Amino acid sequence: MTDLTHIDTWLFDLDNTLYPVESEVMTLVAGRMTDFMEKITGLPRDQARAIQKRYYEEHGTTLAGLMANNHGVDPEDFLTTVHDISLDALSPDPALLAGLQRLPGRRLVFTNGSAAHAVRVLERMEIAHAFEDIFHIAAADYIPKPARSTFEKMMTLHAVGAEGAAFFEDSEKNLAPAAELGMTTVLVGPHAAASTAAFINHRTNDLAAFLNGARVRGSDA
């Protein structure tokens, strides 16, 4: 049984963390990003997608790459466009809601996506009321995780103490700054078990089961 009795602030990435990667929600978002890249670059789709992937790898998000390379993109227009997708693949998750609600203290979403996208996802899954707030990409001045400055901005805004915080993420690289700051790190998703990174404290491919099975402050376990 995972001992998380020292945790009083629970931070969750949104996409491919609070819902399974198999839903392919981010596949739809990526397709919309490629459409956007085609439009602004005038390049064939394969070339536009190559730039999109390079920007993601080099800057943390495609949007950050577009802004860094002076494409003249309105970040809010980009976010609205790429998140204009169907969420039909998502459904209410009672087990996840139960796991979230048994966690003592505060629960926050910490995402590189937009506030509007996060709200849509949380409401679609019927777990929005389980969270106190959302720290989104605009709140981070469009500087995405894994930038340490973005973690520090989130921690300052929400008065998060690292030693009492756990961060759940599907991206290993986004957990590295959390570990450096002193947070407990949990890698989520189908590839979590294969991770050998020393800065990962816990791994799970089933977030709901992990939360419901963990030993937390005030639990009987």
Question: If you had to describe this structure to a student in words, what would you say it looks like?
Answer:
Helix 1 crosses helix 2, helix 2 crosses helix 3 and helix 5 (94-101) runs parallel beside helix 9. The chain has helices spanning 25-41, 45-59, 62-68, 75-82, 94-101, 115-124, 148-157, 172-181, 207-213; strands spanning 3-4, 9-12, 106-110, 133-135, 165-169, 184-188, 202-204, 215-216. Helices cover 42% and strands 13% of the residues. The chain folds into two domains: 3-20 and 90-216, HAD superfamily/HAD-like (Rossmann fold), CATH 3.40.50.1000; 25-82, no CATH class. 36% of the residues are buried. The chain starts with a strand and ends in a 5-residue tail after the last strand. It has nine helices and eight strands. With 221 residues, the protein is of the alpha/beta class. The strands form two sheets. The chain has a six-stranded parallel sheet, with helices on both faces. Strands 1-8 form a two-stranded parallel sheet. The model has no long low-confidence stretch (mean pLDDT 96).
What is the averaged pLDDT score? 96
Q: Would you give the CATH topology of the largest domain? A: Rossmann fold
In CATH, what is the class of the largest domain? Answer: Alpha Beta
CA radius of gyration is 17 Å
* Measured distance between first and last alpha carbons: 9 Å
- The total number of structural domains is 2
- Low-pLDDT ranges: none
CATH architecture of the largest domain: 3-Layer(aba) Sandwich
Which class do the helix and strand fractions yield?
A: alpha/beta
Helix share, percent: 40-55%
- Largest sheet, order of strands side by side? 4-3-2-5-6-7
**Main sheet record:** 6 strands, parallel
